[in-house]
Each structure stands twice: as structure tokens, then as C-alpha cells.
Amino acid sequence: MIHFTIRMVIPFKKRAETLEILSSVAERVRFDPACISCRVYQGVEDEHVIMLEAFWKSSEDLQRHLRSEE
Predict the structure, then answer these.
(1) Which architecture characterizes domain 2-67 according to CATH?
(2) Is the pTM of this model over 0.90?
């Protein structure tokens, strides 16, 4: 299993737009049979932090997804 995390620091004015985009991405990624889980989180202590976290069955599955048009 592969744990994939992206942590971003986003200006407050762009937070809502960023959350909307990443939530849409996470929703589409969840349909990939090789995706175990994909979630978007926002910081409680630091409201500028947004994180995308995904778990994949294998490194090959993640690489295949990253090379796809999706």
C-alpha cells in the first residue's frame, strides 16, 4: 500500500476555491479501483493549510493514475 500526501499552504482568499477543486478531484479519484481512500483536509490550528491524502494499492497504481488524463 502507498500513502500519498500533499500539504499546501493556501492564501485565505483562495481557500474556498481550492477546497472545491480538491474535493472534486478526490471524488473522481475514489472511483479508481486501485484507490483505497482519498480525502481532503483543512487545518484547524492553521486555516491556511489544506491537505490531500490518498492510499493506493501499489506504487504502480499510483504512477498509472498520475500519468493518466484524470
Answers:
(1) 2-Layer Sandwich (3.30)
(2) no
